[in-house]
Amino acid sequence: MQENISLKPYNTFGVDVKSKYFAEVRSLEELIETLKFSNSKKLPLLFLGGGSNILLTKDFEGIVIHLNLKGIHEEIINENEVLVTAKAGENWHQFVMFCLDKNYGGLENLSLIPGNVGTSPMQNIGAYGTEIKDIFESCKVLNLETLQIETFNLEQCKFGYRDSIFKQECKGKYVILEVTFRLTRKNHKIDVEYGAIQSELEKMGINNPTIQDVSKAVISIRQSKLPDPKVIGNAGSFFKNPTIPISQFEALKQKFENIPGYPNGDFVKVPAGWLIEQAGWKGKQIGNVASNQLQALVIINATGNATGKEIFDFSTMIIDSVKEKFGIKLEREVNII
């Protein structure tokens, strides 16, 4: 247990705030011991994994637990299916690469997403037409009140767009210990319909792609558009893509004929990056904070010295600007602490 520790190395925005207490846990036993200490002191809790989907706006007057549980386990189900379980502290992209090296399919479209495995169900992370819910089998969690281990299946997780039960009614009640995914061994489903994957594969001269080829294309696209958090502080996509009624979309199309939209039942999903760019924010910098020049959806710690409050205020200005121009209120994807 350490005291007054800077959290700058533990969040991808590189925001320098302090935690009153800090503990790095590498086993379930260490985790339970730390939780008992927290309960005895009646301290607020904050779990950090890869720190990639969080914005710290102030010092944390409690205990930060850096979850560093490691390990990967495989269980072959049949000729075409395998269950792969990864502990919460495993790096997400490294886990994806592990699965691709084994020729296990299902995760390739989720390559190069920052963060750790443990937070992937919480956010129902997704990219290029794939979401966690598509390959999710179950997760083991620790009940923070009873300190008992429980298992959540796909239905119990109540996955939605960048959403799950862990962000709603179960928020703050559990910590995810490990996640199990159902992947393919042979008959892989190749999904290249979303985004620029197909054109990227054509550039690579590939007509009959493997899951490894799809992963390489996704990595190439992401690297061309998204800044590396190790180089410049960011949390990836800062806002969710809004979903609006068809009637509202049709009305907007009368005014903005080039507005892109993706049908979703009785609604249309509109790319938040396009809205932000049209509102004049792409590449714009105010003080220490900027909108990324290549992808307006990404807010960056441009100077490396931005405070969490500066980044939050910058995001508020974007929300207000988009609302004024399009009548659409953007929702932050990043967790604000």
From TrEMBL:
Pfam family membership, one: MurB_C
Enzyme Commission number, as recorded: 1.3.1.98
Segments forming domain FAD-binding PCMH-type: 14-186
GO MF term list: FAD binding; UDP-N-acetylmuramate dehydrogenase activity
InterPro entries linked: FAD-bd_PCMH, FAD-bd_PCMH-like_sf, FAD-bd_PCMH_sub1, FAD-bd_PCMH_sub2, MurB, MurB_C, MurB_C_sf, Oxid_FAD_bind_N
Job description of the protein: Cell wall formation.
One cellular component (GO) term of this entry: cytosol
Any one biological process term the GO annotation gives: cell division
Chemical reaction(s) catalysed: UDP-N-acetyl-alpha-D-muramate + NADP(+) = UDP-N-acetyl-3-O-(1-carboxyvinyl)-alpha-D-glucosamine + NADPH + H(+)
Protein name: UDP-N-acetylenolpyruvoylglucosamine reductase
Gene3D superfamilies: 3.30.465.10, UDP-N-acetylenolpyruvoylglucosamine reductase, C-terminal domain, Uridine Diphospho-n-acetylenolpyruvylglucosamine Reductase, domain 2
Pathway per the UniProt entry: Cell wall biogenesis; peptidoglycan biosynthesis
Subcellular location: Cytoplasm
Gene source species: Epilithonimonas hominis
Gene name in the database record: murB
Enzyme class: oxidoreductase
Keyword field contains Nucleus: no
SUPFAM superfamilies on file: FAD-binding/transporter-associated domain-like (SSF56176), Uridine diphospho-N-Acetylenolpyruvylglucosamine reductase, MurB, C-terminal domain (SSF56194)
